[in-house]
Amino acid sequence: MRGIVVAGGGKIGGVIAEMLSETGDYAVTVIDRSAQALEACAGLRGVTTRVADMTDPAALDAALTGCFAVLSAAPFHLTGKVAEAAARVGCHYLDLTEDVATTRKIKALAETAKGAFIPQCGLAPGFISIAGAELARGFDKVEELRLRVGALPRFPSNALGYNLTWSTEGVINEYCEPCEALVDGEIRELPALEGLETFSLDGVAYEAFNTSGGLGSLAEVLAGKAKNLNYKSIRYPGHCGLMRTLLNDLNLRARRDLLKDVLEGAVPGTEQDVVVFFVTASGWRGGRLMQESYAGRVLGEHHGKGFWSAIQVTTAAGICTVLDLLAAGRLPQQGYVRQEEIALSDFLANRFGKAYAQGTTAATQPHLAQVA
Fold it and tell me: What is the chain's Cα-based Rg?
């Protein structure tokens, strides 16, 4: 059994630990500075817990020493500290971060690391990057590659059309930070909450707009090879306008702690969610302009005596799949590893990746209408 440390005992970290421990192939330890956060993991079979402050290098080094890999499910502002500890002790490192600055730091650490450093192993960035790269490889020249992902309530009941399904800090970061894209073959930074479009998929109306971090390293990989590439978050219609009011008109982008308190005090969480994703690529193949799309919906699932939400399933399955491929020798064992290096077929064939395979279908391009 390979020793695995999961950094962060929250909603995602707990599911990661449970998924891995149930295989019998991994001995899992979950670390968190909060003993209360670890309580839910303490009763899982084959999972041990350890109180450790992730801002304390000595405590992190002690927790990671001797493990095969550490999987960071910690908030984005702590992820870099976990990566630094992994570099010091020489273990493999995987994370779920969508934060661009953190990923740049991890890439720099990977240059001298003894193990593989694989950031962005969740849903977006993560699986959506793998799917996008797979479609892009099917063209001689890519004209446009569009990535769209949303974690949405199945039963929206407020003006935002939204419930908190994962990290509030992560959502705010996505709505505030610059968004990488390819425009005419060059990497550009676009403002978040712009590029609003509306569309319908399977009879449901949605909107999508620029958010930060979802592309991962795909823009870097396809620069000069694809003309246009962008990532947008999917929401129900009206959400973007209300968030613009909060962030821009009321200037809460300058008071993120206050915005977090407002959202968590007024917007309830839910486990009744759905993850919607689709990728559309158009380009030249054999002298013809062609288009292909790949789309899917994933729902939550009952598991044992509990329930895993769709965002928990998709995020945890993403990083567990990458760990499995790393442990099997299917990925480089040292240095910086991009999601685009993972074959979609390998991902979907994996015991964890099948969570995505069950929800995916080939799809035609949805009708998109630029509205702002």
Answer: 20
Q: Which residues contact 306 (CB under 8 A, 6 or more apart)?
A: none
- In Å, what is the CA distance from 78 to each residue of 8, 316, 326? 10, 18, 23
What lies within 8 Å, CB to CB, of 59 at 6+ separation is 52, 53
CA distance 300 to 316: 12
Instruction: Give the DSSP per-residue string, 328-355.
Output: TT-S-SSEE--GGGS-HHHHHHSTTTHH
In angstroms, rounded to a whole number, what is the distance separating the alpha carbons of residues 193 and 197? 11
Helices (H), 192-351: 218-222, 239-244, 256-266, 310-327, 344-349
Please give the share of the chain, as a percent, with pLDDT higher than 70: 96
pTM for the model stands at: 0.90
CA dihedral 123, 125, 126, 131 (to 10 degrees): 90
Q: CA–CA separation, 281 vs 135, rounded Å?
A: 6
How far is CA 152 from its chain centroid? Answer: 15
Contact between residue 283 and residue 142 where contact means Cβ atoms under 8 Å apart: yes
DSSP code per residue over 113-137: -SSEEE---BTTTBHHHHHHHHHHT
Higher pLDDT, 71 or 75: 71
Residue 67 CA to chain centroid, in angstroms? 24
The pLDDT value recorded for residue 364 is 42
| Sequence-ordered strand ranges (E) for the chain | 2-7, 26-32, 47-51, 69-72, 92-95, 116-118, 141-153, 179-183, 186-190, 197-201, 204-210, 226-235, 273-285, 288-299, 301-303, 306-308, 335-336, 360-362, 369-370
- Return all residues near 319 (Cβ < 8 A) that are at least 6 apart: 16, 71, 73, 94, 95, 96, 121, 122, 126
Q: What are phi and psi of 117, to 5 degrees?
A: -115, 110
- The confidence band for 372, taking pLDDT boundaries of 50, 70 and 90, is very low
Residues found in the chain: 372
